[in-house]
User: What shape does this take?
Amino acid sequence: MDNNQVYKYLETLQEGIFASLDLKPDVYDEAMLSVIMKTNTDNIFNIIHGFKDDKEKERLFKGWKRGTDLLDFFRQTNYFDKIFGSIPTKFENPFYYNVLISIQSEIVNAIVSLDEYKNNPYINNIYVGTLPSGLVNARAVAVPGSENKLILFDNEFFTFASLFAKVVARAIGPMKSNISNFSISRESIILNLTKDDDTPKRLVELIYMFFVNGKPGSASAYTLEDEYFYMSELLRNSLESFAMGHEYGHIISGHLSDKTNTHETNFGDNKANEFNKSWEDEYVADFHGAILSSTALQSNSLSLGNSFIGFDFFMMAATFIERCISVLNRGSVVNLVLFPEMSADSHPPAALRMRTFHERLTKNIPESTHFQALDFGKSISNAIDVLWFGVAVPFLRILHADGVRPSNYWLETARKYRGEY
Assistant: This one.
């Protein structure tokens, strides 16, 4: 089965899921691309910044003027084919797909740079794409009748990652690019937020649009001020890197290649093979994913200690999501570490995954480096905790008291993938 067949299979999965959820998907045809070019200029140029051919990039930036037809202008450059010519299915958002390919490339580069991974027998024939799941997560599936694997991110994953990273970065406050000894207290974060009316509003909107409407992409887009941009991009990129690394961790560990440990999963009217997940499998994939994303982030000039923030921030976001759903459903937070039977069967609570990972990490890196990792993670955790207790909890309790519950889309999709929440 070649890549065209793999993506034809993916398109069938996407079509089936959209139909089963009674959703009308965006189809990225000529008309849609024209709208995208007019409304997503900043995203387009962010993608272009990642391209290496500086002469072509310089010509584009000098030649185009804001307000003119960007679609027509792009056709005069090779960027049109780079961004839009590689879309593998009609349901793939060209921006998100290019981000996916970029993250995958960084993880693959990490794999080939590490002796313990570069000769792994399972790392070939891996493709990426998106699929609506209602969860800010990714999943790895085996394509039936072949050796191919698909890593599928939720189609709203990147929107949530971007908006959540922006809110956390603004709570932390203005930031320079040097974070070698970064640390910030809760008191400093509280002080920042007392001077900032906008960040709490942004978080409230994100919570409502994601958990009540079911679509974080409905939240207002906004451009971050320069002084917050570095931290926001660091958090967003590291979270996305770990998510990709984690799915590669499952594949590297042979979880999808053991035919005795897989089962068929329904995606609408279609099927794909998934592995029978255990908590230990998740811990193993967490460790491999963190090592791979750490290696990728170090190639972008992060220190070893700070490079594990991808794992930590991912788990902090997952904990935030778990708490939001709990308060909306029950009016209070259920501690899933104390009551693991209320967690998903296949995944341990995020807080337990963090504890297990750091216990294993201490055996693999110097103590001083691990302390740096813990300090950086604690600073980010401080920001999220302040936002949680100061903004999210009061808002969620008001919603719960008014009878508002998580969106049917979120709950129905969650049930399809991981049982009753």
User: Anything to note?
Assistant: Residues 11 and 89 are 6 Å apart (CA to CA). Residues 367-401 form the longest helix (35 residues).
